[in-house]
Design brief:
The complex is a heterodimer. Chain A is of the alpha+beta class. Chain A has helices spanning about 1-20, 30-40, 55-60, 70-85, 125-130; strands at about 25-30, 50, 100-105, 110-115. The chains are: A alpha+beta, B alpha+beta. At the A-B interface, helix 1, strand 1, helix 2, strand 2 and helix 3 of A face helix 1 and strand 3 of B.
Chain lengths: ~130, ~50
C-alpha cells in the first residue's frame, strides 16, 4: 500500500517536474515483467526501471533489514495509507529492501538524498521539487 | 527517522550510481547516469511493487 501511495503522489507532480526542466524516474526490484505490469496498471507517465540484482539499491546505500520492517512507525504509516484508501497488494521483489529518493544534477551533483528506514517512510514529493535547481 | 547526509559527502551517491545499469520494462539495459547527464533527475527507489 505504501508503494502505491508514493507513486500516486508522484503522478500529481510529474508535469511540474518537467516544467522545471527536470525528469523523474522510479526504480524497483523484481523482474522486468513485474515492473511492466505495475507501470501499466498504474498508468505511469514516467519511466519505471527494475534492479533485480539490487546493485543500484546497494550503490545508493539503501537499507536492507528485517528488523526495520516491523516497528511502530510501520503501524502509523499503515494507518495513514489505509485512511487514504490504499490496500496492500501482493508483494513483488525483495520484501526486506527499503527505498529512498535522490535528486541528482549534471556533473554528478547531489541535490537531495533520503534513505528510508521503514516501509511507508518515504519523502514528500514537494521536498524533491524544492531541491531542483 | 530519515538520514540526511552532510554536504561534504554529497558526491558519493551520484558517482556510485552513474555506471550501474538497470532494466527497463522491456528488459533492455539502461545506464542510470544517463538520467542526470543533461538535466536534473529525481530518482525514486520504491520498496516493492505492492
Amino acid at each position: 500500500m505504501f508503494c502505491r501511495e508514493q507513486i500516486a503522489q508522484l503522478r500529481d507532480v510529474t508535469q511540474e517536474i518537467r516544467d522545471r526542466g527536470a525528469r523523474v524516474l522510479a526504480i524497483g526490484n523484481g523482474k522486468p515483467q513485474q515492473a511492466k505490469s505495475f507501470a501499466e496498471e498504474r498508468d505511469l507517465d514516467f519511466p519505471l526501471y527494475t534492479d533485480p540484482g539490487l546493485r543500484a539499491y546497494r550503490a545508493a546505500g539503501l537499507r536492507r533489514t528485517v528488523s526495520s520492517t516491523f516497528n511502530l512507525g510501520l503501524v502509523k504509516h499503515g494507518v495513514r495509507a489505509m485512511k487514504s484508501g490504499f490496500r496492500q497488494g501482493a508483494v513483488q521483489g525483495d520484501p526486506w529492501q527499503q527505498g529512498g529518493a535522490f535528486v541528482f544534477a549534471p556533473g554528478d551533483r547531489v541535490l537531495f538524498e533520503q534513505r528510508s528506514d521503514t516501509a511507508g517512510d518515504h519523502v514528500d514529493p514537494r521536498e524533491l521539487i524544492d531541491a531542483l535547481p | 527517522m530519515n538520514e540526511r547526509h552532510p554536504m561534504t559527502e554529497t558526491n558519493l551517491a551520484a558517482r556510485d550510481l552513474a555506471d550501474v545499469t538497470v532494466l527497463d520494462t522491456e528488459g533492455e539495459a539502461y545506464r542510470l547516469g544517463d538520467a542526470w547527464s543533461e538535466e536534473p533527475a529525481i530518482l525514486i527507489f520504491v520498496r516493492h511493487y505492492g
